[in-house]
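Risk register update: the risk of archive-format incompatibility is retired. Evidence:
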Amino acid sequence: MDTLTLTPSALEAFVVRAKAATYVGGTGKVAPARTASHDLEYREGELAYRDSYFGGTDFLGQETVHHADRPVWGMNYYGYLLSDDIDAHTAGETIKAALTELYHQNRFLGGFRQTVAGLSYVDENTGDVLRFQGVEHITTAAGVRAYELRYHGGRVLD
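Archived output:
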C-alpha cells in the first residue's frame, strides 16, 4: 500500500487497531523518544503508529502515523483532573473500558457515551479522520465533571 492508496477509511481502521493494541490493550511500550516521555508503538507493514506522552494525572501527548517513514496523520491531546471526586487510576480505568467498547465498533470518532461503574464517559467531536477536534470527559453520578481531555488532529501532507 503506497501513500496514494492509503484511503481515509484504511487510515482510520489502522488508527483504531493501533489505539486498541497500545493504550487500551497495554502493549507496545518502547524506549522514550524524548526525555521523560512514555511511548507506545504499533506496526503493520509500512504503517507505524506512535503515542508519546508526558505526565500522569495531568498529561499531554501526541499520536502519529507514518507510512514508509513519512508522517501521514497526527493527533495532539491534553487531559486533566477537574476535581477530587476521581483519581487518575479510576479515570484511566474508566477511559480504557469505554474506549474498548468504542474500538470494538471499529471507530474512534463520531461521538460516544458509556457508563462505567457509575461514571459517565462522553466523547464529543467534529470532523473526520482527515481533520477533527473533540473533548472527552467523565462525570460522576452526582453530576460533577471530574476529568476532561481535549484533542485535535488530522492528516499530514508534505
